């Protein structure tokens, strides 16, 4: 892992002790797949970051600055993961946001995560629920204790992800991925207007499949013909098992993965295909 | 502001770039009034911290270590505020908590906040709601975007605090204080089993008043004979106005403030009395 930290446009050696990111999780992040030094979905990541910053009234570094640091961290034209965290500047005690302080932010490079099991992921249901909070829904913000608690529910390494429901009982997502389910020829995915993250790969899949955005009951997952998870680092991940329920490999999932690899060659070089 | 940062028992010069506190708000905090170098409610703060750490499965520094750093920061036997943030160690990308990593933590010293207006606080209703999340309710955790958004709703300096409701419409607390209301001789305070923080001053007031813990409708605040806010730094704060509603000074509030000053002389030296 290598990384660079900044206040506004100024490089800093270390995060300030009074960073609001550290105190309140007062920030946003983006986790991005990098292929040969390039982020194939940079435009989508940047658009989501800007939309989130507008909702939280968070100052952002300029896109040019971020792109320059990205190029520096990946100057070997290598593959990997870039993680950007942008937090509100200003420090100090108290919740009142400093609206004009330059942001405290960090961009870091990481290796690809472990390759998923061939044949598809093994999932479980998480007990930890996602609170319904429309003011934060969709954002990739830094208040992630629910995901930490959910991911801490199991340490069986054969289980790769867990599905999360809202406190109202609707299925929302996995701890670090969005969810699509197929019934016949009809794809659907949970709405993310009450909780959950508006994933960049989710957006791509919506555009490709015309999936319906629905309030999804657990039974809609368990009775599906096929289930997939997706995120911006790992692309499309077929699901092989959810608890006792086994899903046979499905040609519609394989076809989408091929389409993604064709559209964005970075995803063809990944762990899955 | 002066502060000290640590990983486990080891002093560090700066927070690590991959701190989970920064990435996920994966931690707890305590904000403590210090009087002549001593935290009058240290036992209560420590108990809450330990209860929160058990729920989040977070490692803590030992109480002896924290007490040593407190003594160092307040070696002038001065007054002020001590803020302790304890976050999960381990760093790295991904939500899976490292259960055995030593915590990344920080203790800092701050001046008292600005004294409240003589005659009582002026409050408003916040539009930002608190999500219902029993898994985190009561904890003083570092996922505080809701409070940041709520406190960002106004910048009129004559308004000192805002009352927050849950997404279900119940009154819960102010952005940085608990709430008690008086009807006749009966005190009540919102339950904090669905959202909100189990404040140390709230606990003291519960023990003193026998207040009922209730699901509280906004009308119960607006029709009260007296309203007070409380927290561990500022003690008991009478409320003079909530929007258009004016509350006359009430002897029951003054009596509680005197009782607190008697029980904990640190609160007699404060901005209020």
Automatic annotation (TrEMBL), chains A, B:
<keyword id="KW-0289">Folate biosynthesis</keyword>
<keyword id="KW-0456">Lyase</keyword>
<dbReference type="InterPro" id="IPR036038">
    <property type="entry name" value="Aminotransferase-like"/>
</dbReference>
<dbReference type="GO" id="GO:0008153">
    <property type="term" value="P:4-aminobenzoate biosynthetic process"/>
</dbReference>
<dbReference type="InterPro" id="IPR001544">
    <property type="entry name" value="Aminotrans_IV"/>
</dbReference>
<comment type="pathway">
    <text>Cofactor biosynthesis; tetrahydrofolate biosynthesis; 4-aminobenzoate from chorismate: step 2/2.</text>
</comment>
<keyword id="KW-0663">Pyridoxal phosphate</keyword>
<dbReference type="GO" id="GO:0030170">
    <property type="term" value="F:pyridoxal phosphate binding"/>
</dbReference>
<dbReference type="GO" id="GO:0008696">
    <property type="term" value="F:4-amino-4-deoxychorismate lyase activity"/>
</dbReference>
<comment type="subunit">
    <text>Homodimer.</text>
</comment>
<dbReference type="InterPro" id="IPR017824">
    <property type="entry name" value="Aminodeoxychorismate_lyase_IV"/>
</dbReference>
<comment type="similarity">
    <text>Belongs to the class-IV pyridoxal-phosphate-dependent aminotransferase family.</text>
</comment>
<dbReference type="Pfam" id="PF01063">
    <property type="entry name" value="Aminotran_4"/>
</dbReference>
<dbReference type="InterPro" id="IPR043131">
    <property type="entry name" value="BCAT-like_N"/>
</dbReference>
<dbReference type="InterPro" id="IPR050571">
    <property type="entry name" value="Class-IV_PLP-Dep_Aminotrnsfr"/>
</dbReference>
<protein>
    <recommendedName>
        <fullName>Aminodeoxychorismate lyase</fullName>
        <ecNumber>4.1.3.38</ecNumber>
    </recommendedName>
</protein>
<dbReference type="GO" id="GO:0005829">
    <property type="term" value="C:cytosol"/>
</dbReference>
<dbReference type="InterPro" id="IPR043132">
    <property type="entry name" value="BCAT-like_C"/>
</dbReference>
<dbReference type="GO" id="GO:0046656">
    <property type="term" value="P:folic acid biosynthetic process"/>
</dbReference>
């Amino acid at each position: 892992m290598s990384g660079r930290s900044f206040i506004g446009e100024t490089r800093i050696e270390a995060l300030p002790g009074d960073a609001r990111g550290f105190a309140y999780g007062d920030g946003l992040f983006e986790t991005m797949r990098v292929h040969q030094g390039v982020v194939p979905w940079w435009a989508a990541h940047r658009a989501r970051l800007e939309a989130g910053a507008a909702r939280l009234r968070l100052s952002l570094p300029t896109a040019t600055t971020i792109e320059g640091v990205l190029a520096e961290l990946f100057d070997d034209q290598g593959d990997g993961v870039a993680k950007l965290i942008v937090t509100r500047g200003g420090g100090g005690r108290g919740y009142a946001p400093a609206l004009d302080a330059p942001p405290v932010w960090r961009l870091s490079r990481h290796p690809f995560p472990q390759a998923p099991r061939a044949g598809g992921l093994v999932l479980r249901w998480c007990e930890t629920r996602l609170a319904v909070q429309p003011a934060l829904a969709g954002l990739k913000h830094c208040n992630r204790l629910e995901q930490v608690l959910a991911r801490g529910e199991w340490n069986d390494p054969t289980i790769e992800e867990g599905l999360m429901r809202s406190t109202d009982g609707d299925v929302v997502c996995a701890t670090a991925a969005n969810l699509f389910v197929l019934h016949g020829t009809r794809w659907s995915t949970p709405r993310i207007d009450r909780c959950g993250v508006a994933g960049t790969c989710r957006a791509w899949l919506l555009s490709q499949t015309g999936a319906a955005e629905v309030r999804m009951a657990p039974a809609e997952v368990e009775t599906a013909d096929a289930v997939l998870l997706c995120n911006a680092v790992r692309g499309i991940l077929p699901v092989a098992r959810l608890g006792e329920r086994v899903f046979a490999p499905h040609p519609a999932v394989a076809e989408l993965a091929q389409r993604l690899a064709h559209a964005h060659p970075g995803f063809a070089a990944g762990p899955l295909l």
